[in-house]
Amino acid sequence: xxxxxxxxxxxxxxxxxxxxxxxxxxxxxxxxxxxxxxxxxxxxxxxxxxxxxxxxxxxxxxxxxxxxxxxxxxxxxxxxxxxxxxxxxxxxxxxxxxxxxxxxxxxxxxxxxxxxxxxxxxxxxxxxxxxxxxxxxxxxxxxxxxxxxxxxxxxxxxxxxxxxxxxx
Length: 168
Fold this sequence. Notes:
Elements: H1 4-31, H2 49-52, H3 60-65, H4 69-75, H5 114-117, H6 126-134, H7 136-139, H8 153-166
């Protein structure tokens, strides 16, 4: 049934696996070792929130003044799958022609979600668009816009400057 060669191979396999386990434990304890004072031997430095707050705060108006509409046109490519720039031409999303200054949920011929129709009466100012584009689901909970948002402030102001330049 079992010859000595099969038994030797099985024993070597078990011993080899045990050796790999011991070597792995030894390597891990070397990397994540606690010294005799209970301090970690390898510390990863993380920037604190206080260090970030040392930078001067730039106002939204200053950001908008320095916005680049040409760069905003490149950012708009992320939006172009669902939004069109021709007046009155809606797609999956409403037309964004003249959106800056337009009332929220006011594009003719587009069926808005209840989340945005509940905001009717407010206008899409640059600040409101910035808040919406940051994370649409946080701005209007229940919106049907599935876009996650633009994380970079500079991308958002460039996009808003681009959209604002279209109807001028």
